Amino acid sequence: MSFTRLVTLAAVTAAVLAGAPALAQDRIKMKAIGQPLATGLIQKNKEQPFFENFAAKTGLPIDVDYKPIDTLGVKDTEQLRVMKAGLFDIVSLRVSQNSRDEPTILGLDLVGASPDYATGKKVAKAYFDTIDARLQQQFQVKLLGVWPFGPQILFCKKPITKLADVKGMKVRVYDQNLAKFIELVGGTPVPVSFADTHQSLSLGVVDCAITGPSSANSAGWPEVTTHQLPIGFQMALNGYAMTLKAWNSLKPDQQAKLKAAFEAQTEEIWKYSEELFQDALNCNAGKDPCTTGKKYKLVNVPVTPADLDLVRSAVSKVSLPAWAEVCDKSNASCSQKWHATVAPVLGLK
């Protein structure tokens, strides 16, 4: 090979090698925390596929390393802290579980405020900007969407005919707002993580527990309970959020595409969650149609008008005052902003 050809070949090779990192750098890598595997079908059928096909879903050169939180060794109560520390870029935010670190976000899902999907959607829309601003200020995290697991209902291993029957029973709860309500009806609230609830019911640590019917079905709660009372205490609203560092690294047109993709994703989950809710109630009670879960034989306890009134009254009697007291201590304008945005949606003065 002539010297000239050798030099030319070396130059071409150098150019290719120099260009390779640039091509590789064109793709953006992000790390995401997902919902626990144990929560079931929304995580499995909607969330995981969204993140695993993130580039196609968003039309952006972004590859996401998605991990359900119960595979990471990170507690679901620590999501905002690990985001603020810069350990992850995107989070599927568990609202109630992280409300101790930021009480403002619990205003999204006060007990009794969102008894059905239509109301829950209105509350989420009305309160979205307030939460987004607070998360940006306190944790450098931007809110990109809000979606529901669906109405959180009661499962018991002892016979019940109405909500008041939990008096004297130990009830698994997942946030302080719900705990205050259980105290109101005479039960003893016991904070237990979702992953530990099946065992807690089995061992008698708790007599009853609250979650959505689909999550309960996926986690096998009907194996260790006998009754379900399908009254919605909360909508179990959750969110998708991204660190401001990751958000600001994107160009304005990329941000617009990303925002649109998350809005489409959350809208899809709203629809899917509502379908799952009724189907899972059927599955738990051993009725048809049951297409999304395993059939069990729980007693389906009829919801009485008195039960409905009791839950609806929780907003003004318990959940709003208790939450406002805690939230206003860490965020002076907290309850004031809730009254300005969410209260009109619920017809509260």
Automatic annotation (TrEMBL):
GO terms for biological process: transmembrane transport. Coiled coil: none annotated. Keywords: Signal. It holds the Pfam family DctP. The keyword Signal applies. InterPro entries: DctP_fam, TRAP_DctP_sf. PANTHER family: BLL6794 PROTEIN, PTHR33376. This is TRAP transporter substrate-binding protein. It comes from Ramlibacter albus.
